C-alpha cells in the first residue's frame, strides 16, 4: 500500500482510539442545540470530532471512550466560571433534550444552577442503567419526576431541588436501593410521602422541604438507620410525629417546622441524645413538653415556637450538656422559668407570647 493510504489508515486508527464514538458526539451536539448559554460561552469548546478531549464538562471512560460524565454547573468554584468575573454565576435557557439518553454509559449527569433551563426532565433518563449522580438543582424544570426513576439501581445522588416540578413523588422512588442523598426541596410536589419511604435503607439525607406534601409522616422512616438529616419543613403534612423518629441512632437534624402536625411531642424524640437540631415550630403540637432532657442532651437549636404547647418549661433542660438556640415562644406555657444554664443567658424572645410564664428573662413571678 502507498504511503498516503497508510497515513489515512493511521489517522483513522488514532481517531478510533482517541475520539469519542460519533453517536455520543451527535447526542451531545443535539443536547447543545436545545440549550442557550449566551454569557460564558462554555459550549465554544464543544468543537472537533473528539468529544472526550477538551469539551467543557465532558469526561469519557479511558478504555471504551464512551461519554461517562456530563457536568455543567452554572454556579460553582469552577475556575473557568470564576475567571469570567461573573462571580461564578451563569445563566442558561432552553431544555434538556431526550437525546441525552443515547449516552447509555453515562454515570454522572449534572446540569445545575443555570436558573433558566425549563421544560420537563426527559422520562428516558430512568433507562440509563449506570447513572449514579443525577443533579439538576436550580433550574426551572417543570412537569413530573420520571415515573420509572426507581429503575436506576446504581443511583446514589438525586438532586432535583429548586425547580418547578409538580405531581407526586413517584412510587418507584423507594426502590432506589443505592440512594444516599435525596433532595427534592423547593418544588411544587403534591400528594403523600410514600408509606414505604423507609425502604431507602442507604439514605443519609432526605430533603423534601418547601413543597405541598400532605398526609402523615410515614413511620417506616424509623427504619432508615443511616438517616442523619431529615427535612420535611414547609409542607402541609398532618397527623402525629411517629414515635419511631425518636429511636433513630444517627439522626442529628430533624426539621418538621411549618406543617400542620398535631398531637404531643413524643418523649423519646426529645430524649434522643443524637439530635442536635430539632425544629418543630409552626405546627399544631399540643400537651406538655416532655421533661426528659439529661446530661447527654446537646441541642444546637431546639425550636418549639408557634404551637399549642401548655404546662411548664421542663426543669430537666437545665441538666442538658448544651442548649444553644432555644425557642418556646408563642405557645400556652405557664409557670416559673427554671434557673441556671441555659436560662441565664437566653433572651425574653425565647419565651414571649405564652399564657403565664414568669421569671428571668421575663418579669419576676
Ligand atoms: C424553625 O422553623 C421556623 C419556621 O419554618 C423558622 O422561622 C425558624 O427560623 C426555624 N428555627 C431555627 C432555629 O432554625
Task: Provide a descriptive summary of the structure in words.
With 365 residues, the protein is an alpha/beta fold. It has one domain: Ribonuclease Inhibitor (Leucine-rich repeat, LRR (right-handed beta-alpha superhelix)). It is built from 4 helices and 20 strands. The protein starts with a helix and ends in a 7-residue tail after the last strand. 2-acetamido-2-deoxy-beta-D-glucopyranose (NAG) is lined by residues 233, 257-258, 279, 281-282, 301, 303, 325. Residues 233, 257-258, 279, 281-282, 301, 303, 325 line the site of 2-acetamido-2-deoxy-beta-D-glucopyranose (NAG).
**Cofactors, ions and other ligands in the entry:** 2-acetamido-2-deoxy-beta-D-glucopyranose
CATH topology-level name = Leucine-rich repeat, LRR (right-handed beta-alpha superhelix)
Query: What's the level 1 CATH class?
Result: Alpha Beta
Cα-based radius of gyration, to the nearest Å: 26 Å
Succession of helices and strands = HHEEEHEEEEEEEEEEHEEEEEEE
Fraction of residues in helices? 10-25%
Number of alpha- plus pi-helical segments: 4
**CATH homologous superfamily assignment:** Ribonuclease Inhibitor
Brief synopsis:
This protein is an alpha/beta fold. It is 10% helix and 21% strand. The model is unreliable at 7-15 (pLDDT under 50).
Amino acid at each position: 500500500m502507498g504511503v498516503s493510504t497508510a497515513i489515512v489508515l493511521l489517522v483513522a486508527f488514532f481517531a478510533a482510539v482517541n475520539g469519542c464514538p460519533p453517536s455520543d458526539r451527535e447526542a451531545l451536539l443535539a443536547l447543545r442545540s436545545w440549550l442557550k448559554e449566551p454569557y460564558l460561552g462554555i459550549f465554544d469548546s464543544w468543537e472537533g470530532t473528539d468529544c472526550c478531549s477538551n469539551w467543557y464538562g465532558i469526561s469519557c471512560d479511558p478504555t471504551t471512550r464512551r461519554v461517562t460524565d456530563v457536568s455543567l454547573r452554572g454556579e460553582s468554584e469552577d475556575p473557568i466560571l470564576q475567571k469570567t468575573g461573573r462571580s461564578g454565576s451563569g445563566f442558561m435557557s432552553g431544555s434538556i433534550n431526550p437525546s441525552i439518553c443515547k449516552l447509555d454509559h453515562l454515570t454522572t449527569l449534572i446540569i445545575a444552577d443555570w436558573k433558566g433551563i425549563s421544560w420537563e426532565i426527559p422520562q428516558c433518563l430512568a433507562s440509563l442503567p449506570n447513572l449514579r449522580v443525577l443533579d439538576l438543582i436550580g433550574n426551572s424544570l417543570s412537569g413530573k419526576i420520571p415515573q420509572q426513576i426507581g429503575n436506576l439501581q446504581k443511583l446514589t445522588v438525586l438532586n432535583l431541588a429548586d425547580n418547578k416540578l409538580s405531581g407526586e413523588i413517584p412510587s418507584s422512588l423507594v426502590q432506589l436501593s443505592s440512594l444516599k442523598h435525596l433532595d427534592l426541596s423547593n418544588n411544587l410536589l403534591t400528594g403523600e410521602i410514600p408509606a414505604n419511604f423507609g425502604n431507602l435503607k442507604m439514605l443519609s439525607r432526605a430533603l423534601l422541604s418547601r413543597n405541598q406534601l400532605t398526609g402523615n409522616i410515614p413511620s417506616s422512616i424509623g427504619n432508615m438507620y443511616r438517616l442523619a438529616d431529615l427535612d420535611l419543613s414547609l409542607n402541609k403534612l398532618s397527623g402525629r410525629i411517629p414515635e419511631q423518629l425518636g429511636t433513630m441512632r444517627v439522626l442529628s437534624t430533624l426539621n418538621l417546622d411549618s406543617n400542620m402536625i398535631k398531637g404531643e411531642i413524643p418523649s423519646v424524640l426529645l430524649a434522643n441524645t443524637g439530635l442536635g437540631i430539632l425544629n418543630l415550630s409552626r405546627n399544631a403540637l399540643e400537651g406538655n413538653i416532655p421533661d426528659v432532657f439529661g446530661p447527654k442532651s446537646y441541642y444546637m437549636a431546639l425550636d418549639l415556637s408557634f404551637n399549642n404547647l401548655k404546662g411548664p418549661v421542663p426543669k430537666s433542660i437545665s441538666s442538658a450538656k448544651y442548649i444553644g438556640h432555644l425557642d418556646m415562644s408563642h405557645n400556652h406555657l405557664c409557670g416559673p422559668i427554671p434557673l441556671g444554664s441555659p436560662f441565664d443567658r437566653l433572651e425574653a424572645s425565647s419565651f414571649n407570647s405564652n399564657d403565664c410564664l414568669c421569671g428571668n428573662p421575663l418579669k419576676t413571678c
